[in-house]
Amino acid sequence: MKNALSALTFTTRWMAIGLGLWHLYVVSGFASFSTLEVRITHLTVMLVLIFLVLSQRRIETQQGTKSANPLWLLMDLGLAVVAGGTGYYLFSRWLDIAMSGGITTSTDAFVGMIVIGLVMIAVIRRIGWFLAGIILIFLAYPLVSPVLPGVFNSRGYSFTRIAGFMTTTSEGIYGIPLGVSATFIIMFSIFGSFLNVFGAGDFFFQISSRLTKGSMAASAKTAVVFSTLLGMISGSAAGNVAVTGTMTIPMMKREGYKPHQAAAIEAVVSTGGQIMPPVMGAAAFIMAEIIGVPYSDIMIAALIPAILFFTSIFFMVHLQGTKMAVAPAPQTEAEPPLRSILIPGLRFMVPFVLLVGMMVAGYSPFKSSFTALGVLLAGCVVFELRDLRGFFVKCCDALEAGTKSVMSIAVACAGAGLIAGVLAMTGLGSKVSGLIISAAAGVPVIALILTMFVSIILGMGLPTTAAYLILATVVAPALVEVGVPILTAHLFVFFYGCISTITPPVALASYVAAGIAGSDINKTSWTAFAYGITSYILPFMFFFGPALLMQGSALEIVVSVFTGLLSVFCFSIAVVGFFQKKLGFGMRTIFAVTGLVMMYQSWLSDLVGIAVFAGLVLFLRANATASQQLQS
């Protein structure tokens, strides 16, 4: 078994490194591959990697046990071989099929059925039964639609026809979602992995600690700033928790935060990584492809909502720290001079600024990330000249980690492609959209509320990418039809898909944070839900105030940012129940209503909200002054 484990470890490592290098080669422009060639190669190698990694983990868990069953190991290895064989077949056949106008053979359909089966197995093994169940329901629809009543009745298709369509066209498995995984996502994952391996995480942590040193609730604020910086280069909530939580959660506990509070704060701020430009969640890249706008437009539109999200958490931890009278943790060791942090950090800051600048200038995300990666490596070589072998090992580690981190996303995208393919074949999406419009009676706000609940429920059991794609193809068109702007509609479902990671009862980011903090999972989840309450309101804020998406005049944008900050501050006060002193239910309700009033973009609502907020602040300060005078 040890020899088998060593062989699998070696194989998966160099296969991941090879795939990462191949993707870099494709993006470099030195070679030209067709869209389907890139997508077929990407999914084939990912499937092989998934089954080999599963075999590797099976051996690791079975070592030393007498109950090890070699049949399961052989099955995983067999699936890897089949995945490689079917991928090679489709790679060799796609051009003939395209040149013949889409004519396929029975062998093509048979291979297509196998590929669908492999994708389904990979979805079950890597993601879970919830997504697999949804895919199966959609795949069953064309088979049973002729006998369904009402609007769901439609022409049926045989499974042979479905399999052929799903695997020999660019509208099924090898559609837009997988294309995004094979271009944008793999490149940014590799770029982020290089940053992490070469120490960008430590640099961001040191900068965050310096910025918040000596302030009230310093450790919690460090977590907010650190996760904001890390969120700029990472689009994974659970991944951010795993990276930042190991450093920030123990700090918060030492400062006096209860374990579930520290875990909840970390879960919420890490969730913001998926909505923080320039590297948002994987679904944001798919959004750009679906609605046909440059990714830079998505990035710019999401900037103010992301800032409001992190600012609200910053307010929350400050108020909570003041309420608990949390003192800064004592300094245990001398800090290095700031210069010794910033100079080595230039190798991380320059590529990051270049990445943002290139995307804003209109370059494609993967070209921008490729160029930024080259600059990063050039900078890192300078600091690694004394250990070039170590530099090479770090590069290999980064390629391996970056490629393997996309495995789950790749199969989720392939599974989502199956759903998109069914919608394309049957027109089911337009029928569901019609039902939503009828249920909402054509009223945008009702449609948005319905969408919010559907998005959160789907997001609980699905990765953000899969949840967004289903909502984008089924629900978002209905929102557009009732008058919601297309970018607003897609960002709306995207936001709720992201924050499902802190929404009980299934809250993945909260689970990871609770594990690090050693706190109760349910208590952590509900605390994170309370701390993140502003994130559930933000999508409605940019619907009622489109200036928050950079849509409008400069004055409208500035005013919306100002009232948006006041609004999230009011919500933070209402959640924590503290401002100058502990607040009762009535005062907290008034602050919450004031925040709601300032959500709406109009001069009247803004003036009313600002006046009420100012009145509340003056009233509470007068009370606090009177109390101090009485005590003295």
Give descriptors for this structure.
28 helices, mainly alpha, single chain, two-stranded antiparallel ribbon, 632 residues
**Could you tell me how far the N terminus lies from the C terminus, measured between alpha carbons in angstroms?**
77 Å
What is the mean predicted local confidence, pLDDT? 86
**Structural class, judged by helices and strands?**
mainly alpha
User: Mind summarizing the main beta sheet?
Assistant: 2 strands, antiparallel
What string gives the helices and strands in order?
HHHHHHHHHHHHHHHHHHHHHHHHHHEEHH
Low-pLDDT residue spans: none
User: Roughly how much helix do the residues carry, as a percent range?
Assistant: over 70%
Number of separate helices: 28
Name the strands of the widest sheet in spatial order: 1-2
Shape: globular
Radius of gyration: 26 Å
Strand content: under 5%
Number of DSSP E strands: 2
Give me the secondary-structure topology.
Elements: H1 2-28, H2 35-62, H3 70-99, H4 106-126, H5 129-144, H6 159-168, H7 176-197, H8 200-212, H9 218-231, H10 237-255, H11 259-271, H12 282-291, H13 295-324, H14 338-360, H15 365-383, H16 388-404, H17 407-426, H18 428-440, H19 444-461, H20 464-474, H21 476-481, H22 486-499, H23 508-517, H24 521-531, H25 533-544, H26 554-576, E1 578-579, E2 581-582, H27 585-597, H28 603-631
Antiparallel strand pairs: 1-2
Helix pairs in contact: 1-2, 1-7, 1-16, 2-3, 2-7, 2-17, 3-4, 4-5, 4-6, 4-17, 5-17, 7-12, 7-15, 7-16, 7-17, 8-9, 8-14, 9-10, 9-11, 9-13, 10-11, 10-23, 11-23, 11-24, 12-13, 12-20, 12-22, 13-25, 13-26, 14-15, 17-20, 18-19, 19-20, 19-22, 20-22, 22-25, 23-24, 26-27, 26-28, 27-28
